Amino acid sequence: MDNRICEKFAKCPIFQKGVLFNELTGETYKNLYCLRADKFKNCKRYQASAECSCSIPDTIMPNSSLSVEEIIKRVQEKNSNNI
User: Fold this and answer.
1) pLDDT tens digit string along 17-64?
2) N or C: which end of the chain has fewer CB within 10 A?
3) How far is the C-alpha of 49 from the C-alpha of 83, rounded, in Å?
4) How far apart (Å, rounded) are the C-alpha atoms in residues 73 and 42?
5) What crossing angle do the helices spanning 44-52 and 68-81 adopt, rounded to 10°?
6) Cβ partners under 8 Å of residue 45, min gap 6
């Protein structure tokens, strides 16, 4: 795979699990983040998973208003509550 394209794209749950309700929205995300040279590095999902190597909730979109730190904190809190 082209290393300028997100390596997580093929398995990204927002495309694989039907999280998106609108196909046009999915195409927009793909074109803005996943398939444009190095733009995946701006994806909040990508950034958060790279920081904590944890599973990011399916509801976190590439352009989330949450900071990467907030996303990670929520994931860690959820994981600690499930223990």
Assistant:
1) 766 777 888 888 889 999 988 899 999 999 999 999 888 998 899 999
2) C
3) 20
4) 19
5) 60
6) 8, 12, 14, 56, 60, 61, 62, 64
